[in-house]
């Protein structure tokens, strides 16, 4: 039996039920080339099944080693292309699923550990206090865009004396709107002498976590842990254990 295309077509015909098992097995006994090609076809089927169940990297290393050690059967380019295409599809499914899981993980952790700061009292003129309380109402209702639009002008009011807490709420509003660069900018503007600096450090870590910047999140959490009196030290340790 000569011609690898003929061999492959013959095997495909058998696998589709076009040739009886007795006829195929009889010819298989007397044709070593057919035997090797048939073994290779079975290997291909097993490979496709295994790819969907095992870790891709470990499987790839195992298959590569086995491939290098075993004799190479005569196989058709048509089958090679088909197996390669299936392998690529399975890899893309694995890659997408793996990345999706990672995305879900850091978002779930954000939901678990994020907690809004308690509303603090403000000092200033009656007008600025009214504006501040209205902005806080927007925040509590989840109207973060309104906070982003209205709070900067209040920060310019010389009669408003709660700048540091306002910067914190503005940063959190940007965080909740997924505007991470702006969130970081406002957290960084909280004075290190302010009573809100520990809040700013914690919400900086939360921002890195939500945007998936895990190395930066871990670094910020470690900075918090290094401060024995940090009020979020316990939460930072707990979160680090999950990253």
Broad CATH class of the largest domain:
Mainly Alpha
Largest sheet: none
Average pLDDT for all residues: 79
Structural class, by secondary structure, is mainly alpha
Question: How does this model look, in words?
Answer:
- With 243 residues, this protein is mostly helical.
- The chain has 2 domains: 4-101, no CATH class; 114-240, Tetratricopeptide repeat domain (Serine Threonine Protein Phosphatase 5, Tetratricopeptide repeat, Alpha Horseshoe).
- The chain has helices at residues 4-15, 21-30, 32-51, 56-69, 77-113, 126-140, 144-155, 163-176, 180-188, 197-210, 214-225, 233-240.
- The longest helix is centred in the middle third of the chain and has 37 residues, at 77-113.
- It is elongated and about 100 Å long.
Spell out the key features of this protein:
243 residues; Serine Threonine Protein Phosphatase 5, Tetratricopeptide repeat; 2 domains; 12 helices
Quick overview of this protein structure:
The protein has 243 residues and is an all-alpha fold. It is 73% helix and 0% strand.
Question: How would the blueprint of this fold be written?
Answer:
Layout lengths: L3 H12 L5 H10 L1 H20 L4 H14 L7 H37 L12 H15 L3 H12 L7 H14 L3 H9 L8 H14 L3 H12 L7 H8 L3
Helix pairs in contact: 3-5, 6-7, 7-8, 8-9, 8-10, 9-10, 10-11, 11-12
């Amino acid at each position: 039996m000569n011609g690898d295309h003929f061999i492959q077509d013959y095997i495909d015909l058998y696998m589709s039920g076009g040739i009886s098992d007795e006829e195929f097995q009889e010819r298989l006994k007397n044709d070593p080339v057919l035997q090797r090609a048939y073994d290779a076809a079975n290997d291909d089927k097993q490979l496709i099944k295994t790819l969907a169940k095992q870790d891709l990297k470990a499987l790839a290393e195992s298959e590569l080693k086995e491939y290098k050690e075993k004799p190479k059967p005569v196989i058709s380019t048509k089958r090679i292309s088909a197996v390669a295409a299936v392998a690529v599809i399975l890899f893309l499914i694995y890659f997408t699923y793996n990345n999706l899981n990672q995305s879900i993980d850091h978002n779930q952790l954000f939901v678990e550990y994020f907690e809004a700061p308690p509303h603090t009292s403000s000092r200033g003129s009656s007008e600025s206090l009214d504006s501040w309380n209205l902005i806080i109402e927007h925040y509590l209702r989840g109207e973060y865009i309104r906070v982003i639009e209205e709070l900067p002008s209040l920060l310019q009011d010389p009669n408003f004396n709660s700048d540091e807490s306002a910067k914190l709420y503005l940063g959190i509003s940007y965080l909740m709107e997924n505007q991470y660069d702006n969130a970081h900018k406002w957290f960084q503007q909280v004075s290190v002498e302010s009573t809100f600096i520990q809040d700013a450090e914690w919400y900086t870590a939360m921002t890195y976590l939500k945007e998936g910047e895990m190395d930066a999140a871990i670094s910020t959490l470690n900075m918090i842990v290094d401060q024995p009196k940090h009020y979020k030290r316990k939460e930072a340790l707990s979160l680090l254990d999950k990253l």
